[in-house]
Specification:
With 152 residues, the protein is α+β, with helices and mostly antiparallel strands. It has one domain: Rossmann fold, CATH 3.40.50. It has three helices and four strands, in the order E-H-E-H-E-E-H. A four-stranded mixed sheet has the order 1-2-4-3, covered by helices on one side. The two termini are 30 Å apart. The model has no long low-confidence stretch (mean pLDDT 83).
C-alpha cells in the first residue's frame, strides 16, 4: 500500500487556487503518479484538501484521476480502478472535523471500495506489498534523486 499527500497550497480555499499552474507546488502530485507507475503498489491512497475537487472547475481532479486510471502494465492492461471521496475525519473516530479528499486506487476489476463510516479495520497486512524496500528499484531511484537535491 502506498499512502501519500501532496502540497495543498495550490488547491486550498484559503490559497490562490492556482492548481497545477502554481509554479512551486502545483505539479508535485505528478511525481507521486510517476512513482506509482514505477513501483506499482497493490493499492494506493492520496490525500489533499476537499477544495481540490473544485479547483479550475474540477479540471485538476479530472486530470489526476485520468493519469492514475491510465496506468497500464506491460501487456497494456489497466492496473487500477480509481475513485475518490471527501470524508470528514470525525466520522472515523478522529478528534477533528476537517473534510479531506481521498483518492483510492485498487487492483483493476476488484470489488469497489465502500466507505460508510467508522468500522473495524481489516488487518493492514492484507494491503501491504510483499516486496522489501531494498528490492524496489523505484525506491533506489527516488532516493538517488532526493540525494542530489538541496534541502535549502
Amino acid at each position: 500500500m502506498y499512502v501519500a499527500g501532496f502540497p495543498c497550497q495550490p488547491f486550498s480555499s484559503l490559497g490562490r487556487r492556482e492548481g497545477y499552474s502554481d509554479q512551486r507546488y502545483g505539479g508535485l502530485v505528478f511525481h507521486i503518479v510517476d512513482h506509482i507507475k514505477c513501483a506499482r503498489p497493490t493499492t494506493f491512497i492520496l490525500e489533499n484538501v476537499k477544495n481540490f475537487v473544485f479547483v479550475n472547475n474540477g479540471e485538476c481532479l479530472k486530470m489526476l484521476i485520468s493519469a492514475l486510471s491510465e496506468i497500464q502494465d506491460s501487456t497494456g492492461k489497466t492496473v487500477y480502478d480509481v475513485s475518490y471521496k471527501v470524508l470528514k475525519a470525525a466520522s472515523f473516530g478522529m478528534p477533528q472535523s476537517r473534510n479531506r479528499l481521498y483518492i483510492m486506487g485498487v487492483p483493476s476489476g476488484s470489488q469497489p471500495i465502500q466507505i460508510t463510516g467508522y468500522q473495524a479495520m481489516r488487518p493492514i497486512s492484507e494491503f501491504l506489498d510483499k516486496k522489501l524496500p531494498s528490492d524496489d528499484p523505484c525506491a533506489g531511484r527516488l532516493l538517488s534523486q532526493l540525494a542530489g537535491q538541496s534541502t535549502g
